[in-house]
């Protein structure tokens, strides 16, 4: 890793990013003069013999008259996410340099030019890091005005008004600390307690889990004679990820505290099948599972029987329908349907849409469609095929979520993210960030790099600046669970992750969601940003786009989602405030003068 670190002169005249009107490159080919002749020859060798000084080697840049080097270790040559980012097709100077370094036979050597050839009064030409030059044009992003879809999260109705078991109400108040219902709970709980199937859509962090969990617990505790473990599953809850399965299991553990005869259990990939089999043999009444693992047990575990199932809940139903899961879901539905027992079916998500109709038609009877947003208050009874049409394509995001976008050429993505992290975690207090990226490799790469470069103890900060966590699908389940629990409980820190953390996770006090790579769909965007600003809280999000990806802003606007632009230069200016990275040249004062405000939002 050490060899991969470039030294950048980020302090030198950083206000020349090419824009439509200004094609001059940022830090590009700045001409620096040298005073000492001896030094000059050393430096010129470094500059003009690229075979010896490839992009993978550290660079030192000298400034006019200052006779010192800047050592800013910020950028590694090429992150995996950049390598994988096929959307960004522009070949930057930086990438060209990498190619040259990889194939020595094609390395282009630059002819040595005599100092007097250069215009700058005979002073030698010094080539700076290519990171900040040859940038593509950065277009302005205009997010068109859209009508936001609003949802009121809270109502004035209390759980006591629902005629629930008093112990359940007491548990809600004392254990979960909830007294009044959210809008989705107010609309869904009575419908489900009445025995209807339902398709429920409400914004992220609005309390959908309790919207179905309360009716499930209320109905199971009322069964006479009392439920026994040997009855097997009475409620089956399918969720798309292991962490969400754990979180849902914990919620049921809490809700079922007064009803100890009803046993919840979780099955998920990565856990030991043998111990799961033995728990299934003993009996699980509320069964929470990821689809793949449940299918595995349906095929291989004799003791799993569904003859008593009264509830089937598909949380994040649109995700569960995605390619890969659909086959599993068919196996699960066939196994449940073969028993012939009538059951209630519930589909939930913040982004249920037209893909739902297939599932609704195979699994539901006259479902009620509950769509909590302005203009569609209350519930609508529809036929299964019509259920999807009742749900529009306009997604509601939390009211107190501030959404931003920044356009960054791909070669500057990494340094820009590093700068943003510093801005939030070093120069502001109490920030908890989730950074989404497209691959497990990218998560690993950035974790290693940031741990070394950003978190390291320094003279000025003897303690680690902040905690970094990672979560992705290639980790062992034990490590995933540990990170999930730790990050849930921590006050500040940064979670680098893939979309395994995008759906359903309720991680307390997250202040910022950063999408380092854009999501694969509008729906995934909604779920990613939904990890903050939950249950009426404030939160912010930042979407990184390359110049060629800016059309995604319009795609979001088609779904009534609007973003405000943050300027890359404002984010990068944070580097000037960090003694480890800022330069010592005359430009520092200029940078600080031009960027008086450290908060790029302002
Ligand atoms: N009535 C309530 N009053 C206060 N807090 C509540 C209430 N109901 C749920 N919560 C809390 O709100 C948070 C979000 O709930 P939940 O995870 O169920 O949201 P969600 O709608 O399922 O979100 P997502 O779409 O992201 O899965 C949880 O911490 C939960 O404990």
TrEMBL record:
Keywords: ATP-binding, Helicase, Hydrolase, Nucleotide-binding, RNA-binding. GO terms for cellular component: nucleus. The keyword S-adenosyl-L-methionine does not apply. Residues 75-84 have a biased composition (Low complexity). It is an enzyme of class 3 (hydrolase). Residues 157-186 form the DEAD-box RNA helicase Q domain. It catalyses: ATP + H2O = ADP + phosphate + H(+). Its EC number is 3.6.4.13. Residues 400-572 form the Helicase C-terminal domain. It comes from the Eukaryota. Residues 189-370 form the Helicase ATP-binding domain. A motif (Q motif) lies at residues 157-186. Residues 51-67 have a biased composition (Polar residues). RNA helicase. The Q motif is unique to and characteristic of the DEAD box family of RNA helicases and controls ATP binding and hydrolysis. This is ATP-dependent RNA helicase.
């Amino acid at each position: 890793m050490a060899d991969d670190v470039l030294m950048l002169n980020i302090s030198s005249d950083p206000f020349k990013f090419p824009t439509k009107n200004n094609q001059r490159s940022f830090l590009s080919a700045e001409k620096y003069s040298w005073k000492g002749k001896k030094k000059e020859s050393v430096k010129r060798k470094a500059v003009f013999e690229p075979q010896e000084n490839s992009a993978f080697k550290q660079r030192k840049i000298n400034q006019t008259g200052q006779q010192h080097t800047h050592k800013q270790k910020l950028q590694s040559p090429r992150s995996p996410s950049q390598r994988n980012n096929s959307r960004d097709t522009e070949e930057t100077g930086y990438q060209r340099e990498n190619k040259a370094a990889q194939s020595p036979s094609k390395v282009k050597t630059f002819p040595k030019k005599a100092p007097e050839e250069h215009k700058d009064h005979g002073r030698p030409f010094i080539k700076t890091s290519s990171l900040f030059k040859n940038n593509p044009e950065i277009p302005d992003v205009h997010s068109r005005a859209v009508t936001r879809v609003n949802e009121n999260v809270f109502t004035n109705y209390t759980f006591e008004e629902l005629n629930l078991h008093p112990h359940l109400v007491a548990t809600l108040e004392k254990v979960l600390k909830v007294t009044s219902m959210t809008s989705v709970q107010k609309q869904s709980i009575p419908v489900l307690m009445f025995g209807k199937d339902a398709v429920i859509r409400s914004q992220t962090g609005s309390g959908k889990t309790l919207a179905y969990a309360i009716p499930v617990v209320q109905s199971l505790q009322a069964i006479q004679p009392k439920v026994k473990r040997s009855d097997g599953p009475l409620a089956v809850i399918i969720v798309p990820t292991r962490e969400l399965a754990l979180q849902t299991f914990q919620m049921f553990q809490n809700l079922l505290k007064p009803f100890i005869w009803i046993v919840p259990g979780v099955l998920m990939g990565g856990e030991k099948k043998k111990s799961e089999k033995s728990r299934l043999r003993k009996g699980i009444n509320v069964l929470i599972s990821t689809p793949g693992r449940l299918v595995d047990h349906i095929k291989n575990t004799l003791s799993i029987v569904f003859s008593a199932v009264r509830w089937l809940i598909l949380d994040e139903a649109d995700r569960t329908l995605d390619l890969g899961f659909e086959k599993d879901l068919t196996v699960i539905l066939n196994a449940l349907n073969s028993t012939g027992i009538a059951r209630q079916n519930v589909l939930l998500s913040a982004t249920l849409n037209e893909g739902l109709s297939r599932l609704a038609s195979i699994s539901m009877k006259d479902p009620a469609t509950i769509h909590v947003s302005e203009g569609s208050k209350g519930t609508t009874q529809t036929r299964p095929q019509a259920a999807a049409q009742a749900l529009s394509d306009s997604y509601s995001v939390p009211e107190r979520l501030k959404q931003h976008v920044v356009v960054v050429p791909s070669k500057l993505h990494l340094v820009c993210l590093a700068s943003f992290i510093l801005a939030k975690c070093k120069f502001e207090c109490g920030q908890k960030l989730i950074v989404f990226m497209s691959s497990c490799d990218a998560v690993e790469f950035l974790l290693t790099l940031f741990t070394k470069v950003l978190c390291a103890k320094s003279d000025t900060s003897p303690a680690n600046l902040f905690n970094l966590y990672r979560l992705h699908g290639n980790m062992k389940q034990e490590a995933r669970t540990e990170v999930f629990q730790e990050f849930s409980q921590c006050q500040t820190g940064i979670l680098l992750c893939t979309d395994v953390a995008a759906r359903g996770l309720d991680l307390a006090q997250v202040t910022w969601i950063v999408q380092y790579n854009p999501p694969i769909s509008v729906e995934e965007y909604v779920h990613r940003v939904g990890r903050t600003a939950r249950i009426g809280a404030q939160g912010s999000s930042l979407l990184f786009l390359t110049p060629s990806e800016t059309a995604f802003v319009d795609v979001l606007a088609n779904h009534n989602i609007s973003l405000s632009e943050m300027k890359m230069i404002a984010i990068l200016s944070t580097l000037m405030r960090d003694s480890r990275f800022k330069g010592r040249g005359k430009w520092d004062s200029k940078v600080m003068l031009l960027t008086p405000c450290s908060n790029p939002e302002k």
